[in-house]
Amino acid sequence: MSIDSSSSSNEPVLDYPLPLPSALEPPAEWAKLRAGCPIAHVRLPSGDSAVLLTRYQDVRQVLADPRFTRQLGKEGAARISEEPGGVFESQEAASLTEGHERWRRLLAKSFTAKRVSAMQPRIEAMADQLIDEMVQQGAPADLMAALAFPLPVWVICELLGIPSIDRDKLAHWSNAMLNLSQFTRQEMEAAQAEFSAYMSMHIAAKRAAPGEDLLSELVAAVDEGHPLTELELMMIGQGILVAGHETTSNTIAKMMGMLLGDRERWELLVADPSLVRTTVEEALRFDANAGFGLPRFITEELEVAGQTLPPGTTVICSMAAANRDEQAFERADTMDLRRSPNAHLTFGAGPYSCVGQALARTELQTVLNALLRRLPTLALAVPASDLARREGLLIGGLERVPVRW
Q1: Which residues, if any, are the signal sequence (predicted)?
Q2: pLDDT per residue over 92-114, tens digit each?
Q3: CATH number at 14-404
Q4: CA-CA distance, 95 to 72, in Å (whole number)?
Q5: How do strand 49-53 and strand 141-142 relate by DSSP bridges?
Q6: What would the pLDDT profile of 76-95 be if each residue is shown by its tens digit?
Q7: What DSSP assignment string belongs to 122-185?
Q8: Cα-flanking dihedrals φ and ψ of residue 375, to 5°?
Q9: Measured between alpha carbons, how far is 141 from 371 in angstroms, rounded to an integer?
Q10: Rounded to an integer, what distance in angstroms lies between the CA atom of residue 24 and that of residue 22?
């Protein structure tokens, strides 16, 4: 689970994840590691050892190389958290990993640019409705609760073809799947059982009465003999529901924290809304609170950054640290709303990049346009340094984003 002694340095073992000085600022260690320790030894919350990559080229290489596998349930792979069974390590996750290419091809057909583009007016109407409700309730408001969380939930439920879900239940199930230190194993198992029963019910309903939606398409593919098991179908449905709202909800909140935390950024956008597209890309790149990163496991000897990693090594790819690499981005520690091109690694790299990125980009751009149009005087109701970071989960986020207008 670590580099052999011949390639090991005298660098201390760091506890990972690295602490952030505030919810929107990067750890000081990132720059030091990129400069002098591109393969750093880290200790995970489980106590197991892994190596951390922070340079752009190294992270990009690993994410695009299928030999760095997702098989975190294999013997010898580092456990991420003290309580096993999270999103990376469960038996269900192992099943999806083995059938990755099969289900990925299915989803790629469903998340086409054409389909996502057709949803944009509906997403805009949802955003306007939520902003109406927030304004009606008056300032100050929590932008996370009022807009950032519910909008992606509504969007992904509509895409899947399931009724608007109980938000508190979904948040609980989702957080349990993304657990790092917040839940016990018993709590995780109970949440997974509830979530599985919920998804099985909807799969049965789609089988009985299919509609024009993604879940119906996946059910039909299985029933037509596509090599996808019932367990994989259920896990894909759960994965889309969780990934389809969790990352986007958190990114909306963090993006608004970044933009409102520096008044010049927000005023630049109000003056020139044509910068929305490049602003969204820069918010994705500049996000210092992106969460755990992507773990990979190797079963053969491989080379990264001029060092040989032995079989049995668990590698953590920090896309957020790589996105701040001065060798890849000019003025990497500056949020430049006009930055273009912007080849950030937030959605991964190569053929294994996130299949839902077109939908996420559309939601982020639509929300930002709506807020600029409806609430140009929007401002944080607390200092940016007081924004509280979500703790104990694999994904980074903010607890609340208090705003006024």
Answers
A1: none
A2: 554 455 556 667 777 877 788 88
A3: 1.10.630.10
A4: 11
A5: unpaired
A6: 999 998 765 555 555 555 44
A7: HHHHHHHHHHHHHHHH-SSEEHIIIIITHHHHHHHHHHHT-PPP-HHHHHHHHHHHTBSSSS-H
A8: -135, 65
A9: 14
A10: 6
